[in-house]
Amino acid sequence: MAVSDMASATASKYDIGEQMCPYRLVLEHVTSRWGVLVLIELMERPYRFSELRRAIGRVSEKMLTQTLQTLERDGLIHRDAQPVIPPRVDYSLTDLGREAAEQVRGLALWTKDRMGDVQKARVAYDARRSGA
After folding, report:
1. Model pTM greater than 0.90?
2. Helix axis angle, 21-31 to 33-42, nearest 10°
3. How far apart are alpha carbons 101 and 34 in whole angstroms?
4. DSSP letters for 20-59
5. Rounded distance, CA 89 to CA 37, Å?
6. What are phi and psi of 87, to 5 degrees?
7. What is the number of alpha carbons within 13 Å of residue 92 lying toward its C-beta?
8. How far apart are alpha carbons 85 and 22 in whole angstroms?
9. What is the pLDDT confidence band of residue 108, given thresholds at 50, 70 and 90?
10. What residues contact 90, with CB distance under 8 A and at least 6 apart?
11. For residue 4, what pLDDT is reported?
């Protein structure tokens, strides 16, 4: 076995270089702060940009634009630009996006359901750290 092959064999499953980059990048997009909220919100129905921004709240126009472009590039959302005046653009989930949104929503619901346990753990941790 060549030295480079041995190094590859001993690498962590999350540290395998370029083979893993696309996977990790999509995971980052789907689980980003705004990516999660966009995917969950679009599960309800298609949204226009301004409607989506209001529904999500506290997201800048620039950040929402970047998030939508990233998710569109990954094939998770569809951008439908209507050739009317004023321009109308609707965003909706693709089939792939709906799958991702369902997974993310499951994690979000788990977080909501288990927040009491998380709060207790935080209080206990903080007490241990402060020496109380």
Report:
1. no
2. 70
3. 12
4. THHHHHHHHHHHSHHHHHHHHHHTT--EEHHHHHHHH-S-
5. 19
6. -55, 145
7. 8
8. 38
9. very high
10. 46, 47, 48, 79, 80, 82
11. 47
User: Nearest Cα to 64, choosing from 43, 75, 48?
Assistant: 48
Indicate left, alpha or beta for 58 from its phi (over 0: left) and psi (-120 to 50: alpha): left
Look at residue 11 and give its three-state secondary structure: coil
Q: Supply 120's token pair.
A: 């207790």
How long is the chain?
132
The pLDDT tens digits of the residues spanning 32-74 come to 999 999 999 999 999 999 999 999 999 999 999 999 999 999 9
Element (H, E) at 129: helix 115-130
Tell me the CA distances in angstroms from 65 to 7, 24, 105, one per residue in order.
Answer: 41, 21, 21
The CB density around residue 53, as the number of other CB atoms within 10 Å, is: 17
> Residue 5 and residue 118: Cα distance in Å, rounded?
42
Nearest to 23 by CA among 36, 14, 32: 14
